[in-house]
Amino acid sequence: MKIRFHNIVIKSLPMLAVLVSLFGAGQSAKAQINAEQVLTIGRNVLSMEDYMLSIQYFNQAIKAKPYLSDPYFFRALAKLYLEDYKGAEEDCTLALERNKFKTESYKVRGFARQSMGKDSLAILDYDAGLRYNPEEKYFLFYKALAQTDLKQRDAAEETFATLLRIYPQFEDGYAARGRMRVIDGDTVGALSDLNRSLEISKNQLNARLLRAGIAADQKRWADAIADMDVAITLKPQEADLYINRAYLRYNEDDYFGAMADYNYTLELEPFNATALFNRALLRYEVKDLNHAAEDLKKVLQLEPDNFHARYNLGLINMERGHHKEALADLDKITQKYPRFYPAYYAKAEVFRDMGNMRVAMQQAHTGDELVSKYVANPEANPLDRPAIAAGKTRTAEEEYNEDENEIEVMNRFNQLVTVGSAGEETQLTYNEKIKGRVQDRDLRVEPEPSYSLSMVDSPASLQATSNYFRELDDFNQRRYISDPIYLGAGVRQMDEKTMQKLFNRADYYEKAVKDGSPRGADYLALGVIRAMLKDYEAAVAAFDKALELDPGFTMAYMGRADARYRGLRVRMAENGDAEDAAAGALRQREMQVALSEVIADYDHALQLNPRLVYAWLNKGNIYYEAGDYTSALQCYAEALRLDPAFGSAYFNRGISYLQIGNKRLAFADLSKAGELGILPSYNLLKRMK
After folding, report:
1. How far is Cα 39 from Cα 33, in angstroms, rounded to an integer?
2. How far apart are CA 689 and CA 663, in angstroms?
3. Angle of helix 51-64 relative to helix 70-81, nearest 10 degrees?
4. Which residues contact 656 (CB under 8 A, 6 or more apart)?
5. Which of 109, 272, 333, 585 is deepest in the core (most CB within 10 A)?
6. Is 0.85 surpassed by the pTM of this model?
7. Can you name the residues that pair with 441 across neighbouring β-strands?
């Protein structure tokens, strides 16, 4: 089995050098001082790899001086590092419209296009840059890579020759040409280039991995391990490398070394299914059956459709004498792959061990018939062949397209697997770190939260929206009550001190509405506090009173809609499953009525203030959670018509488009949301590619 190494890394490493060179680019002397200062701050933030924050500074510079090229270019560069290649391409185009002589824009746009698979367009950009600077290293380098991917062998050879003639000590160039020759099957030429790359720099990661791959293909396990050892030294936190070295060590009969690599991988990534699967097979091989079964059960928790793991678990359960569990696993295999004959032989053995010889003979006969029919006419009677790869299955037809002569593959169903690049599981912690490669953080995909009234100000964020609406500002300016009211997104976490203060203020307003002449403002404040304390029934009652006193109270409609909806969600969670169909239908009708009341409150608020974008977003979120994506899209579109810089609406519209399968519009909205400071956008863009 071949190891799938990190060849693609070779395309991205040199961008580090681009960043260094780009910061030497000159700035427009005509920009006013404030735009220059903002741009300079943005570039400094960019150099510290705080890409999200740098984008916000470039947005300000663009707003101040939209005719300048540099803010678009540097925003493109930030998006590039966030792997928002479409956004980077668009910003570079805007930069070039303002200054066609800014050659670095051709480089960044070319790289973005190349990363999206638009290699032909990328080459046009590199050629444009080479017209201005015919010996620029990275224009030549990226052009050669694009030509390689387009299988333009002769053109790529010519570009590499030019590159390495001008830059004979450019180790990345030799490694890239070595990669091309590996693809073409020219092992001798590839090794010559890779050795040259490592002569120049012993720490060239890609050359090490490529050379290890060649050695593994040639079964020179010791040589492959030596290169992999260096690669691990260079990238000690890369779990994939340990998995691949374990495979090499296994082939060298170094079971302890292989097991140590799998154990360390699982220290780095406790839920790495490939490492769990491979460790299970090693444990199975040395008859550590109980621990092997534990590992495979974990794999199936992570990947329920991993039939490779399920088959092996069935065999282990058979050996452990857990007959019922073994049959359950093997039955699932034959249900999915009814022509996978080894499963029938395994089931025959289980039934034999259970003393049921009649059924055992039937199962064995089924397996024999499948093999006999295949031998007589392979095309008419193909066998099912689950792929030899953790977590992946293929149909018989797909397997046969690869190699019809690999019948022994099913007799080697227990095999270690190797990996390319495993996903990272970096969790975002408290108020962190809107910094660095946020697209690598594994965030849940859910809508940006609805807006609600609060007595506590929300923390600052990167978003451009100011959470302003006219009635709220007027209410606070006129000081109808002593406490200011704020508008913010999501439910805020409160400490004990804040909660005690809210309880005290609730007592104050309860007394105010009971003593003397109650005012709508007092009931509004009481409703906001009760909602914050999650006493939604009391909150709705307070908002009802406020609206009785003032039927045109926009803020009360907003508060009541939010309290009603949050209370509805609590009731839905508490009710759970209905005892019978009639009770379920009744509860469903009650929920529909309650939901219509929530929508009606937002509609009342919008009648009073048609420009209240937060009401449109909140309505959209309700429809989204109800699965009515068409209505949700309409609401988000209306919010964006009123406020084209409303990042939350772009994000929520983007994931709504994903729900209906429109990736093109989804990616455009998510890119814009990221530009406007919505943190999960770049993570989602990366995951959806």
Report:
1. 10
2. 10
3. 160
4. 620, 624, 629, 632, 633, 636
5. 109
6. no
7. 426
